[in-house]
């Protein structure tokens, strides 16, 4: 079966079981505490907490995901930076029995996987959390032999939350036996064994808990199912390959695993409007790009192949093709220049190469850590006090984030009417929507509000398309319709910045600041005042989008 057929099989299977097919959400999430979407459940987070789902209480999706935590493992058989996750979701509907039975049915009946090759795990309990005997019993009832069912603790069989807080719970997992051979590492060999005999296929999460910011668990009022099945891994198993890189998904992407992995991530990130930068998401893109460029000069051709392969599945790749290729081309040039200048500086270093010097190269010439490490390696030199690099980078990121946000015009004395307050809250929604749709390179450059309209200036280097304007309006209106609470808390400035609250000139603020949050969608340091909820703001409409000055766009919008 090809990967294209598999996508269809999966969605058909769950649609027949009453699930609404939901398109993948963006790689950039509403949740300000995470950089990227890392799993299918993120776009559904509120529905586990009781908010009414517009998709009914069963959904399925194929979600674009990006995980940078596995970046060091890229190049092995099964870890990827960008991947797609198949998932089925239940919000206060079916629970363990159906989730487990359907997963096994799909693998056996639709994917033709031999049950002999499947092994199973469940949560065996840890500290105050009880053993999930129910899942084990379901496996046994399905006729699976006890020798192939294993209990594990929290590390392996408890999942979530994504970001700072959210739904989470014990899991049951389905693993595939790749080799059929007991390993040489120990006595028994079971799922999660380091010998790589098994590949984890399907993670079934039983969302029963809510973990708050202090990492305390409480029971959710309703139970839910969240499952994640890596598309590339399943394709590898079905195509009888020992690695994801040997599947049809990678066949046109050359022999370098790292390059094949990175180019997919690069294309999908660039398609989200992310551009190479020194901080945040843009920095991840820059690192991936520069590593790919170092591997091979032909990355433009590879990027075209990725676009070709996915353009019918993800229309944004087609729409943004020129932008994506331009971003890559620009980075090839700027990296070339930076390398030349950086290498000159590097060659001047006498004595030890320290973390502080690595930072110097990074901050003045944008030389990524990996490049300096590679140079040092060639010279058979070690890098001393590398932790200084991380420390300095972190400080640098915090300062630039606060600085780059520029001064917020704020509300003048004359602008305290009810209408102006609503428009002020709408401005926060607009700001987050712009960052979500156009990418986090969007920075607020100014704002002006009166009782009739809002005006918002932001950094962006081209005209917005009609579709983008529509998407932004839709997203703001969606958040208005959801009638979200607008919360205000007084916290220390440092904590506010650390928590990802958008901020303006740091030095203007007292030690304690007000942070206004609108659910997970928006979080800004701001003096207010704001509406208490979003529900009564009205209909948000963008009247005009135009250039304000070089690299800065201006939006005028109203609430109807
Ligand atoms: N949300 C389940 C997973 O990512 O494995």
Q: What is the CA-atom radius of gyration, in angstroms?
A: 25 Å
Please tell me what the overall shape is.
globular
Q: Provide the CATH topology of the largest domain.
A: BirA Bifunctional Protein, domain 2
Alpha-carbon distance between the termini?
51 Å
Q: Structural class, please?
A: alpha+beta
Features:
BirA Bifunctional Protein, domain 2, 18 strands, 9-stranded mixed β-sheet, binds glycine, alpha+beta, 560 residues, 22% strand, single chain, 4 domains, 4-stranded antiparallel β-sheet, globular
Report what the structure shows.
The structure is a single chain. The chain is an alpha+beta fold and 560 residues long. It has 4 domains: 3-180 and 189-242, BirA Bifunctional Protein, domain 2; 252-339; 352-408, no CATH class; 418-559, 2-Layer Sandwich (Threonyl-tRNA Synthetase, Chain A, domain 2), CATH 3.30.980.10. The chain has 17 helices and 18 strands. Strands 1, 2, 3, 4, 5, 6, 7, 8 and 9 form a 9-stranded mixed sheet that branches. The protein has a 4-stranded antiparallel sheet with strand order 12-13-18-17, covered by helices on one side. The structure holds glycine. Glycine (GLY) binds at residues 39, 41, 159, 203, 205, 226, 228.
């Amino acid at each position: 079966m090809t990967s294209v057929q598999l996508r269809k099989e999966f969605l058909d299977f769950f649609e027949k079981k009453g699930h609404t097919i939901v398109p993948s959400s963006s790689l950039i999430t509403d949740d300000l505490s995470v950089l990227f979407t890392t799993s299918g459940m993120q776009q559904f987070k509120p529905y586990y907490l009781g908010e009414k789902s517009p998709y009914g209480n069963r959904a399925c999706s194929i979600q674009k995901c990006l995980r940078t935590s596995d970046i060091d493992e890229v190049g092995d058989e099964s870890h990827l930076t960008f991947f797609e996750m198949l998932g089925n979701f239940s919000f206060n509907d079916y629970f363990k029995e159906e989730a487990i039975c359907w997963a096994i049915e799909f693998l056996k009946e639709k994917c033709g996987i031999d049950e002999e090759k499947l092994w199973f795990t469940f949560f065996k309990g840890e500290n105050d959390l009880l053993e999930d005997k129910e899942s084990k019993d379901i496996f046994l009832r399905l006729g699976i032999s006890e020798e192939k069912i294993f209990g594990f603790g929290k590390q392996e069989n408890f999942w979530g939350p994504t970001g700072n807080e959210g739904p989470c719970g014990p899991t049951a997992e389905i693993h595939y036996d790749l080799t059929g051979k007991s390993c040489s590492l120990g006595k028994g060999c079971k799922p999660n064994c380091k010998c790589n005999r098994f590949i984890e296929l399907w993670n079934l999460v039983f969302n029963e808990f809510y973990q708050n910011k202090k990492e305390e668990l409480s029971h959710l009022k309703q139970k839910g199912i969240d499952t994640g099945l890596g598309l590339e891994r399943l394709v590898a198993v079905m195509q009888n390959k020992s690695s994801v890189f040997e599947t049809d998904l990678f066949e046109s992407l050359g022999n370098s695993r790292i390059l094949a992995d990175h180019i997919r991530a690069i294309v999908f990130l660039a398609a989200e409007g992310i551009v190479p930068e020194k901080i945040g998401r843009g920095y991840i893109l820059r690192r991936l790009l520069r590593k790919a460029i170092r591997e091979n000069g032909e990355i433009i051709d590879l990027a075209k192949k990725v676009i070709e392969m996915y353009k019918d599945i993800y229309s944004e790749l087609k729409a943004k093709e020129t932008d994506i290729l331009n971003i890559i081309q620009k980075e090839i040039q700027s990296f070339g220049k930076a390398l030349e200048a950086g290498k000159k500086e590097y060659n001047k270093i006498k004595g030890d190469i320290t973390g502080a010097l690595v930072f110097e190269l990074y901050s003045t010439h944008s030389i990524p850590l990996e490049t300096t490490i590679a140079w040092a390696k060639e010279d058979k030199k070690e890098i001393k006090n590398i932790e200084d690099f991380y420390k300095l980078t972190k400080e640098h990121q915090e300062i630039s984030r606060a600085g780059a946000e520029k001064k917020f015009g704020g509300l003048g004395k004359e602008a305290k009417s009810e209408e102006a307050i609503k428009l002020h809250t709408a401005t926060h929604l607009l700001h987050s929507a712009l960052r979500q749709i156009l990418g986090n390179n969007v920075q607020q450059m100014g704002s002006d509000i009166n009782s009739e309209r809002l005006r918002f200036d932001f950094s962006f280097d081209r005209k917005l398309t009609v579709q983008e304007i529509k998407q932004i309006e839709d997203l703001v209106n969606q958040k208005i319709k959801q009638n979200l609470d607008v919360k205000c808390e007084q916290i220390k400035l440092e904590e506010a910045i650390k928590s990802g609250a958008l901020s303006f000139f740091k030095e203007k603020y007292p030690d304690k600041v007000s942070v206004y949050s609108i659910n997970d969608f928006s979080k800004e340091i701001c003096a207010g005042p704001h509406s208490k909820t979003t529900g009564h703001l009205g209909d948000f409409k963008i009247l005009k989008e135009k250039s304000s000055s070089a690299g800065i766009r201006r939006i005028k919008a109203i609430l109807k």
